[in-house]
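Honest question from a wet-lab person: if I give you the sequences of every part of a complex, can you actually get the arrangement of the whole thing, not just the pieces? Trying it with mine:
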Amino acid sequence: NAGVMQNPRHLVRRRGQEARLRCSPMKGHSHVYWYRQLPEEGLKFMVYLQKENIIDESGMPKERFSAEFPKEGPSILRIQQVVRGDSAAYFCASSPTGGNQPQHFGDGTRLSIL
Amino acid sequence: KNEVEQSPQNLTAQEGEFITINCSYSVGISALHWLQQHPGGGIVSLFMLSSGKKKHGRLIATINIQEKHSSLHITASHPRDSAVYICAVPTTFSGGGADGLTFGKGTHLIIQP
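Yes, you can. This is the full assembly:
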């Protein structure tokens, strides 16, 4: 009965490299949310996806960040040309359907930029 | 856009004390979430409620939709309850599809033995 799986748990990148964060939702869940928690700050919404569709990306920085949730495989949050300010914990959550549903969170990916 | 305020920001109490954490929000919502973030960083969903009260073990969550206010209570607190407790609401009240969440800044709770 696997929950939301995120990998890697920790990711270290140098400035200018690309970071790819993966999220496999709970079985039967087709809605995925990405959140970012900057050091000493609260969680912030980034993007909401359903299979093959981006529903709301209003929280995503306009440049360098992208997200996808393909028909097969995990959801990917991609950060190109990383900068020090991208260092944060990135959490994924999933829910089974639209409407008011509890969101189940993964353990997060801690991204550190050298 | 919904604004979420939590209080207190930090709370230290002795084992066995009754704990109350408050959350208020600015825009009417369909449901409110209480989350727990462990010292290791993982996040657990404690409650989602849209009216009244819910209870799970020593945890009780209440919500007053008219007053736009919710409380999380912990009875007979224990050191293992030490964590950050976070209130969250839908970013926009759509009344329909699942929204991304807007979070409070969290309450850092420490229960001393």
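Two things worth pointing out. Chain B touches chain A at residues 30-31, 33, 35, 41-45, 48, 50, 86, 88, 90-91, 96-106 (CB under 8 Å). Residues 93-97 of chain B have pLDDT under 50 and may be disordered.
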